[in-house]
Each structure stands twice: as C-alpha cells, then as structure tokens.
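The instructor's notes for this session suggest beginning with a concrete chain rather than abstract definitions. Hand out the sequence below and ask the class to guess, before any prediction is shown, which regions might be ordered.
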Amino acid sequence: MGMKNALFSLGSLSEQIEKTNNRLATGKKVNSAIDNALNYFVADSFQTKARNLGSIIENIGLGLNVLKQTDKALTTLRNTLEQAEGNLRSAMNTSGTNARATSTFAFRNAATGAADATVTLAEAAGGSSLSRFQVGDTITVNLVRVSSGGTVTVVGTGTTLTTTATTTVQNLLDNVNNNTSINPASQAQRMAAYLNDGGNIVIENQINGADAASGDTFALQMVVNTAGGGTQTQNNTLDMFAFNGALGLSPSPTGSGTQTTLMLGGSVEQEPRKASANFFREVLTQIRNTALDSGYNGVNLLQGDFMRIAFNEDDTTSISIRGSRINAATLGFTTDNYATSTGDAFYNLQSDLALKNVIEKVRAAKTTLQTMQSNFASSSGLLTTRQDFSKFAVKNFTDGSDLLILADINEEGATLSSLQTRQQLAVTSLSLANQADQAILRLF
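After discussion, reveal the predicted structure:
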C-alpha cells in the first residue's frame, strides 16, 4: 500500500514538473484553451486588437508622410514666391518705359503719417497751397493718338472732375480709373491713377508701344484748369512732373491757368523689367510643377485630393483632410493677353503699377499658402496625437494579454525547485516502501 501511494505521488509530481518546465520554456502559463479557456480567449481578443491597431498606426504614419510632403511643397512654393517678390522689387528700382505724372505733395494721414486716399485734395497738411488743387480746379485725362507728325487726336474723352472742399484723393483716383471709354472692362487698363506708398498721387500711362497698323503712338493727355488762373501755373498744380517717361511730360501752361500734359507710352521695353517679367512667368510655371510633384502614396493634397484616415479597426472614427488645387490661377495670378489696335501690350511689367499690383498678388498668395500650411500643420498635430494614443493602446492591450497568459518566471522557478525537492523525497519514500515490502517477503 505504501509503495502504491509513493508511486502515485511520484507520478503526480512528474506531471507538475513537466507542466512547470513547459511554462518556463514558453514563458506562458496559458498555452491553449485547455489550460484556461477564459484567460486564453480574452488574451487572444486583446492580441487581435493590438495587431489591428498596429495596422492603424501604420496608416496614420503614411498620412503623416503625405502631410510632410505637402508641407515641404508649400514651403518650397513660399520660398519661390519670396524670390519672385525680391526680383520684382528689384525691377521696381529700374526705369520703365511708361510715362507717369507724380505729385510731389504727399497725402498722408495726419495721425499715423501713412498714405491716405481719404485726405481731401485741398487739405493744408504742409507745403505751398499752390502745389495742391484748389476748390473749383478741374482735371480731365483723355486717351489720345499721336501721329508720326506730332498731331494729337483725342480718341477717348475722360470725365472732368471739378474739385470741391470735400473732394478726396480717392475721388480723383476713381474719376481716372473708372472711365470706361478709356479703360473698357474687356481690355487691359490703359490709364491708372493710384496713391503710392509715400502718399504721392501717380497717374500712369499703361499703354505700351505703337499701333501696329499705323505706327501712331497712344498717350494720355492730362488737362488741368486752375481756378486761380495763371498764378498757379508757376508751381504746376499738384507739382506734377515727368519721371522715367519714354518721352516724358510736355507741359504747356497758358496764362488762363490751363495746363496740358502729354504722357507718351514707350515703344521699347526696358530689359531689366522685361527680364523680371520673364522670370515671373517662369515662377508661375514652377508653381504648377511643384504642386504636381507634391504627391505621396497616390495622394496629392495640392491637386485637390481627399485623404481619410481611420482611427480604429471598425472604421467608426476617422479624420478627413481635403486638399486644394494649387496653380497660378488659384493663387490669383492671370496672364491674359489683351493686345488690341489701341496699343495695349502683353502684361509685361513695364509700368510701376503693374509691378505694384503683381507684388501685392505675390504677398496675398504667400498669405494663402501660409494659411494652408497652418491648416495642414493642425491636421498633422491631430494625427500625431492620435498616433501616440494608438501606440499606448497597443501597449495596454499587449500588457493585458500578457497579464492573462504569461507565466511569472520567478514563481515558476521556485515552484520547479520545490517540485524537484518533493520528487527526491518521493523517490526516497518509494525506496523505503520497497525495502519494507521486501522485509515482509523475507519472513516467508
């Protein structure tokens, strides 16, 4: 009986030792559903969740790479426009062929000192009163054709503006710019009036070159009649003077106080400005090319593509990022050709106003790109935050699975040592039981 019990105990210990050795070898206390069905299947669901989240993390990473590619492309576009702006500002310092009349008197805000078109023409903010329009003065800007023999023919009559005590600089600018007989909406602007950064009024001839059919030159004719008569002619009303004009101004004051000034368009493009115009056209091309080359993994946010990234394996939570098509037109640039028989030429940046307008568009385009870059950066921040959360979730599910199925190596090692000791004792017990049985047999 004692030997039987010893053998049973020894067999049980061998099974436990084998089980403990298996746990130490695999590092798991639950290797199959037979070991612990509840722990096994819960741990398996945790592992499946972690694997699925691993794929989600990879997709988020790809989305981040798309945004990185887009951000770099936008930075490249902004740098390109920075270079273009520098080139255009450099061209502004060179002489153009477009004649223009500029006031030496500057109209500025009395409080801030900034150029201010709401200032009245007769406002006494400094300088001689004879250098500004007085109440009752009139100004008319006509479009004229100048023949090779010097004959001047009015082909577009401007609207006459009679100044009052409340007439502002803006009223004068609008009177010149909004005359549809000279500046038809369907064609390029032929004359332009604006207030420059220094507060000076500028009236500029936007017509370049001669009429291809007749060879005649088109010009602007500015007629000013001063209410004060000849006393104002010595100062030239508003101190309008020639500046970098092809043929400049031809003032002809009379004793009656009427002054006629002719601003002739240039027939030869100035090379620095022509080079700047060519460079800018190339910039517009490169804007499109850079946007076309900014795709990643089949997604190009600068071509208006849509990117949706799921945040869980059930696809019930996600983020959607919509791009925008970027090219010269969407950034506000146009290269229309308005060439007509009245001498209008291709948009060639020969005039100060053309350069000024393009520089303003460049600055607006940079702001647009900066806004886009900021929005994409916000989306990138959201993706990074969600990626970090998903990585934590993977670790948490993995830890939960390990808690249910992994063995405690220290505990299992101590158990094995204890079982081995008990096994040795069982072997000794079996030996003693065997000796007792043999002693009994010797009695017979």
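Then share the key points. Residues 88 and 276 are 6 Å apart (CA to CA). The chain has two domains: 54-94+271-396, 100-264.
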